[in-house]
Design goal:
With 59 residues, this protein is mainly alpha-helical. The protein is built from four helices and no strands. It has one domain. Helix 1 (2-9) packs antiparallel against helix 2 (15-22).
């Protein structure tokens, strides 16, 4: 959760400062960013695509 917050706030604040305030290492944040999506995350994205297509069918 902390890494997601850093990712969202990095446009407004330096990553190193965000990591310092949240007590995580910058290397941990950058490792998190480079990891591939987990199987669960991929399943969630597929499900989200199905939900979106059901809510907004093509005209």
């Amino acid at each position: 959760m902390k890494f997601r917050f850093i990712d969202a706030a990095k446009e407004s604040f330096p990553v190193t400062r965000l990591c310092q305030v949240l007590e995580v290492s910058p290397s941990g944040y950058f490792a998190w960013r480079s990891r591939p999506a987990s199987p669960r995350q991929r399943e969630d994205l597929v499900l989200l695509a199905h939900i979106c297509s059901a809510l907004h069918p093509l005209q």
